[in-house]
Design goal:
345 residues
């Protein structure tokens, strides 16, 4: 596989260097039949039964419709010699074992074995084309995009004709293996909070939904030392202004802007993800509340909770549950003379 990758990397570089349109390689029908059998042995979905694709990006395989015997007969007719790779004659790997031992035995049973497998693979390819179109429509019925990922409605999903296959088709594009897909399918009725991970995404079972989001690096804390505009490590910007409270002052009602009593807050501030055990006094309340309990009451998913930011002052007290609610201890009162206005985008 390493040598194969090196070859194709070289071919692609050469294609660019000489401005070629395509890279033609000489795989033939027997190679495709071997691939189908290898996939069957390993355990495959429908796509593994289609064999080698005739077109894969810039790679074209114009000889897939011909057998090795067809090619050798043609070469003999024009007097053209050819080279046989000696490593293909030793049954030390799966493909060679099939080529040298298994396929000749199957051809004894049915001389048209290779032709029949190739024909069946073509039928499967046609069926997958139709199935893909139906799958696109099914995904539209059961899945919706949201800020951060994709949500699959479990009840709608279960009502589809083949939910197990539909789940496989949805999850394979996010890097989940067939084995993981089986585990997820068996866990559809599990309590909220069950988490699965692929190399690129995470899947969360949450209140009748499957939530799928990309793996993201942990958000690092960021110091806010004075007023100004800050480019955030988590993306976006935080604008911080200290303004006098005069007759023109209007308290913001926007979720992305907070107005606090500037004289009650000591810099530097810290913007960071909410942590276990964080407490604050929600605006309008007197007692403290765990941030985690507040977010649970809001019916936020684990993904959403992990993205929640808090802004703390120098003493470590939370002044703003960002985008949600300010801390009541730092609210604007009749005695307030200056306001700290912060807007996050």
């Amino acid at each position: 596989m390493a040598a194969r990758q090196l070859r194709y990397n070289y071919f692609e570089q050469l294609r660019r260097d000489i401005s070629a349109t395509d890279i033609c390689v000489a795989h033939h029908r027997d190679d495709s039949v071997e691939t189908v059998l290898i996939n069957l042995i390993r355990g495959t979905g429908l796509r593994g039964l289609t064999g080698i694709r005739p077109v894969n990006g810039y790679i074209k395989r114009p000889l897939l419709c011909l057998s090795r015997q067809d090619i050798e007969r043609y070469l003999a007719s024009v007097g053209q010699s050819y080279v046989t790779d000696s490593t293909n004659l030793v049954d030390d790997v799966v493909r060679n074992k099939l080529r040298l031992n298994i396929i000749p035995l199957l051809k004894e049973i049915n001389p048209a074995f290779s032709e029949n497998v190739s024909r069946a693979a073509a039928h499967v390819t046609d069926a997958i084309t139709m199935l893909d179109a139906a799958t696109v429509e099914a995904v539209k019925r059961v899945a919706t995009d949201y800020d951060g990922g994709v949500a699959v409605d479990i009840d709608k999903f279960k009502a589809e004709p083949s939910p197990a296959y539909l789940l496989y088709e949805i999850l394979r594009r996010y890097g989940f293996s067939p084995a993981q897909t089986e585990q997820i399918y068996a866990s559809l009725d599990a309590p909220s909070g069950r988490l699965f991970a692929s190399s690129s995404h995470e899947l969360l079972i949450d209140r009748g939904r499957l939530l799928i989001e990309r793996n993201l690096p942990a958000i690092q804390p960021q110091k806010i030392i004075e007023d100004g505009t800050y480019v955030l490590k988590s993306g976006g910007r935080l604008k911080v202004n200290v303004l006098p409270i005069d007759d023109n002052f209007v308290l913001s009602r926007s979720s992305d802007t907070v107005c606090l009593d500037a004289d009650k807050i000591i810099f530097p501030l810290t913007l960071r993800p909410a942590a276990e055990g964080d407490r604050f006094v929600p605006f309008g309340m007197k007692g403290t509340k765990l941030v985690s309990d507040y977010l649970t009451d809001r019916k936020y998913s684990l993904f959403r909770k992990r993205r929640q930011l808090v802004l703390t002052e120098a003493s470590g007290r939370i002044v703003w549950l960002v985008g949600e609610r300010p801390d009541n201890r730092f609210r604007i009162t009749e005695e307030s003379r200056r306001t700290l206005v912060m807007t996050i985008k």
